[in-house]
Task: structure prediction
Amino acid sequence: MIPAAFEYKRPMSLEEAISHLAELGYDARVLAGGQSLIPAMRYRLAQPSVLVDINKLPNLGYMHEENGMLRMGALVRDTDVEFNEQIQRKYHLISDVSRVVADPIVRFRGTVVGSLCHNDPSGDWAAAAIAARAQMVIQGKNGPRVEAIDQFLVDSFATSIGEGEMAVEARFPMPNSLTSGAYEKIERKVGDYATAAAAVQIELNPDGTIKEAGIGITAVAHMALRVAEGENLLRGQKPSLELIRAAAEEARKIADPNPDARGSAEYKKDMARVLVGRGLIKALRRLNVVVA
Ligand SMILES: Cc1cc2nc3c(=O)[nH]c(=O)nc-3n(C[C@H](O)[C@H](O)[C@H](O)COP(=O)(O)OP(=O)(O)OC[C@H]3O[C@@H](n4cnc5c(N)ncnc54)[C@H](O)[C@@H]3O)c2cc1C
Result:
């Protein structure tokens, strides 16, 4: 399929990119890795009149820790994350996700920030960002603003990015030595979108009780969801199988999937439950806590 005609801009600075976006409004779309936008244009599901290609912008491929946050620029590709030793060692949830998004070819071009901006209801990064309590930095003509991920992810394929703005960074809170996470995804074959998936992150208190819990599920509703009731059940409690079962059940309750070739609605709801349970057990095991 051939996309509809469009104009192409390749700014060399962030200011220039913002200025194009401000001038062109919603007619313009940012082009990052192109792994979702280009297929959508080829199927004419998206017909922007102008593409603002951000790939030549300097200084957006950074990934470093600062002020308690891992800061990831808008040009960090999935593979940059996947093969980063610090991520593998310390950011268990992010590392898990980076290995199962699509296939290596897509991961080579696709960006984490682009995926969050796309906000596909089956996207892997949105669930992870919810569980990790990520933040997004959005830049417009009036400068940058920071938004919590729950405010940023608005609806299917919709975010809080306004006219004339772009996302410049995703921020993930730095885990301490009592924090771990996991991502559990089932897919029909390697490289497919999830049939269902769950992201979890747990922080323990020194006494072994759960200080903070994050649970995000994806592919089982109109967008990735926070399992807030499950998080509430976990907070302050000592990990046990019974507790995990109860928290995971909250995922089944809020999942509201469509039946399709990947499975029935009931199956997907139950998989959300199973995957949250598995994720919690794996995250705890990574903290040397074995629940029985
Ligand atoms: C074969 C295939 C399989 C896939 N499988 C999966 C999968 O299993 N899991 C999964 O999560 N995804 C999957 N994807 C989708 C893909 O991983 C991501 O959606 C994609 O990489 C998004 O990042 P990008 O940089 O390519 O964004 P683009 O395609 O360039 O952009 C996507 C959208 O986000 C906007 N955008 C991008 N960057 C910014 C920015 N900085 N500021 C504002 N708006 C921006 C664009 O304007 C566009 O609307 C798959 C894609 C393909 C082609």
About this structure: The chain has a mean pLDDT of 97.
